[in-house]
Fold this sequence. Notes:
The protein is mostly beta strands. The protein has a single domain (3-354), classed as Methylamine Dehydrogenase, Chain H (7 Propeller), CATH 2.130.10. Helices cover 0% and strands 54% of the residues. The strands form 9 sheets. Strands 16, 17, 18, 19 and 20 form a 5-stranded antiparallel beta sheet that branches.
Amino acid sequence: MKQFFCLGTYTEPILFGTGEVFQGKGKGVSICSFEDGKIETLTTLPVRNPSFVAIDEEQRKIYAVNEMKEYGGAFGGGLTQIGYEPDGTMQIEADFNTAGTDPCHVEIAPNGAFVSVANFASGAVTIFPRDTQGNLRADKTVFQHEGNSVHPTRQKGPHAHSSIFAPDCPLMFVPDLGMDKVVAYRYEGVEVHTDEVATITVERGCGPRYGEFAPNGKDFYLINEIGSRVMHYRYNAGKMTLCEETSTLPYGFTGENICSDLHITADGKFLYASNRGHDSITAYHILEDGSLAWIECRSSGGKTPRNFALDRTGSYLLAENQDSDNITVFAIGDDGRLTKQESYAFGSPVCIRFFKKTAF
């Protein structure tokens, strides 16, 4: 079955929170086809540092953050609205300053009324309203996080990293690496406000980055960048109860590592987590009670797997290895184990989002 995905890349230098200056080699946003483990680039649109994208297939819109510290001559990164045609050609329709630096994640609210942007460096969340055609409006709202934690360099201030929407109620969770919190927000239409009761505090020094709800809507899994661990929560009507924590690293590893991404297969059987430093993908079996059983930890097929994606069939995992400029395709076995297939050259790949439809 032919599928399609949207790829984001780093295109220019960026100063990371680790203190490293990374030289982006990407070309912008690409639409690629994927069939039988093979990747083919169809179209590419030059966009500045589009490190994460969100897709609205009904309105044929792609929203790409521009991970920068200044955009359009002002403080903050950018958010670019892209339209795409049935043949996959793309065009920039509008762009906006997010009023927060280094935006690294964007997601569309389930009600379609707004998109949420997590600005990593400044620790702010920016809400952009949308009209009924999917066009972004300029009257944004910015929520500035305040706080820090124990890591001497990574947690001097807030670092919002992603926006995750609850499956059963108008609730949004924003992991903040710098505060060791998952900040909760309630929304109604386009109106958004913080919810301190639903906000989660994790162990100091963990650095929460991203999370996903299991298909059953009852289990939530949170990956911690600094702590290199996955936390399993039982979720019920907006309340999270911590059940367990498990390392993403093999026993005995003592090197430097920071986690990056986490995804669950559509059937809810397997969870995968990525390590940067160890440069690997760790696989877990999700048991009936939601707990995680270690399967394996294997090389990501390159250096620094910033992001990875599972295809719509649950048959393949695609690892974007940022520092080795390649995407490695793995086949997923019935037991959850990964088998390396092909590796494809892409400059600084950092985000893959699959389209739900199999044709434009």
